[in-house]
Write a structure and sequence with these properties.
heterodimer, A: 115 residues, mainly beta, seven-stranded mixed sheet, four-stranded antiparallel sheet, 0% helix, globular, B: 114 residues, six-stranded mixed sheet, five-stranded antiparallel sheet, 11 strands, 53% strand
C-alpha cells in the first residue's frame, strides 16, 4: 500500500529534551513538508524539502531541525529551543510542485505533548 | 500579503442541511486553490480549482472559484454526520513556482448533528 506514515502517534516531551518525529513515504515523491497545526490556526509550514540532501525553512522553523538523507524519509526534530511545542504535526509529500498540477498528500500526524 | 482566510471558523448544522464554506485570498498572482477535508488525522484532498466559474463536483460536495472576487466556495448538500470535519483551503505561496509551498487558511470546523 502506497502512502505516508508518521510515528509515533503520540509523543511526550520533557522540558529540555529533543524529540524526533518520523515521516516515511513510499510514493516516490520528491518533495516533502512538515506542518504544525494548532487549534484555530490551520496548518503552518515548518520545513520543506524538494529533493534529497536539500531543505528550506518554512514560516515557523525556529526551534526545529530536519534532515533529508533519503528520498523516502524526512524526520523532524523538535529541539529544546522550541518553547511551545504542544501541537499536532503533519508530514506531507508531493510528486512535483504542489498547487500547480499536483496536490500534497498527508500522513496521519503525530500529537506532541509536553510533560 | 500572501494570506488565505476562511469563514465561518465553525458551523453547526443538522443532517439534511446545505452548507456553504468560504475561502478568500489576497494575492492576485493566482495559480490554483485547493480544498481538503480533515476528519481526525490526515487531511484528504477534495478539489483543485484553477479556472474561474467552472464548478467541480464530487457527490454532494461541489466547489467553484471566483477569480474576480478572489474567493472560492465549498458547498455540501444534504449533509450527513460523516461530513463533520475541518475543511481546509490552501493556495500556492506567492513566488512558489519552484518550491511547491502551500499557504493554508485557518480551517472551518463543521459539526453535523443527527
Amino acid at each position: 500500500d502506497g502512502g505516508i506514515t508518521q510515528s509515533p502517534k503520540y509523543l511526550f516531551r520533557k522540558e529540555g529534551q529533543n524529540v524526533t518525529l518520523s515521516c516515511e513515504q513510499n510514493l516516490n515523491h520528491d518533495a516533502m513538508y512538515w506542518y504544525r497545526q494548532d487549534p484555530g490556526q490551520g496548518l503552518r509550514l515548518i520545513y520543506y524539502s524538494q529533493i534529497v540532501n536539500d531543505f528550506q525553512k518554512g514560516d515557523i522553523a525556529e526551534g526545529y531541525s530536519v534532515s533529508r538523507e533519503k528520498k523516502e524519509s524526512f524526520p523532524l526534530t523538535v529541539t529544546s529551543a522550541q518553547k511551545n511545542p504542544t501541537a499536532f504535526y503533519l508530514c506531507a509529500s508531493s510528486s512535483g510542485l504542489a498547487g500547480f498540477k499536483e496536490t500534497q498528500y498527508f500522513g496521519p500526524g503525530t500529537r506532541l505533548l509536553v510533560l | 500579503e500572501d494570506k488565505v482566510v476562511q469563514s465561518p471558523l465553525s458551523l453547526v448544522v443538522h443532517e439534511g442541511d446545505t452548507v456553504t464554506l468560504n475561502c478568500s485570498y489576497e494575492v492576485t498572482n493566482f495559480r490554483s486553490l485547493l480544498w481538503y477535508k480533515q476528519e481526525k488525522k490526515a487531511p484528504t484532498f477534495l478539489f483543485m480549482l484553477t479556472s474561474s466559474g467552472i464548478e467541480k463536483k464530487s457527490g454532494r460536495l461541489s466547489s467553484i472559484l471566483d477569480k474576480k472576487e478572489l474567493s472560492s466556495i465549498l458547498n455540501i448538500t444534504a449533509t450527513q454526520t460523516g461530513d463533520s470535519a475541518i475543511y481546509l483551503c490552501a493556495r500556492p505561496a506567492h513566488g512558489s513556482s519552484n518550491t511547491g509551498k502551500l499557504i493554508f487558511g485557518q480551517g472551518t470546523t463543521l459539526q453535523v448533528k443527527p
